[in-house]
Amino acid sequence: LDVSKNRFSGTLHPDFMQRSTLHAEIINLGYNQFEGPLPTVINTLQALSALLVNNNKFSGEVPDYSQATNIRQLDLSNNQFTGNFKWLRVMPNLAWIVLDNNKFSGELPELGPVVSHFSASGAGFTGKIPTSYGNLGYLHVFNCTGCQLECPTPDLLQHVYFSTHCKTIANPLDYQ
Fold first, then answer.
1. Are 14 and 39 in contact (CB under 8 A)?
2. What pairs with residue 9 in β-bridges?
3. Is the pLDDT reported for residue 80 higher than 50?
């Protein structure tokens, strides 16, 4: 289902997509004006590989979608989501996470083993970056610009190609 960039508005019905539990692979609601909470029924969409609800006016806490284990891409950016969520760590296929510009609180969530892209710029997270991020071998992008985060060790994310935190930069004069 791709209804992105259509200027749709309103709230999603609690049974949104319930009839498509076997077939929905992508939900793209991006760049509309939807508001209110995300329906919990999305958790039953077993074939869902991408949930893209960016650039809307969604609010409230993000429901636990840990039963939708095939999700590979999650984009919740540029909404008004609040709270924090711990279910990301149990998502076995989730590789791409974008949470930018929301109203989350607390520490960053633990992430699953195959995450390659994590962006939470301006998302409101605070505290220490989990040391487990140093063991995420697939992580190539870590962007938390604007979050008040501390590094448990200065080189925790040294293995990450692009990181806004916890990466020691080599002296460019060493390469002359």
1. yes
2. 33
3. yes
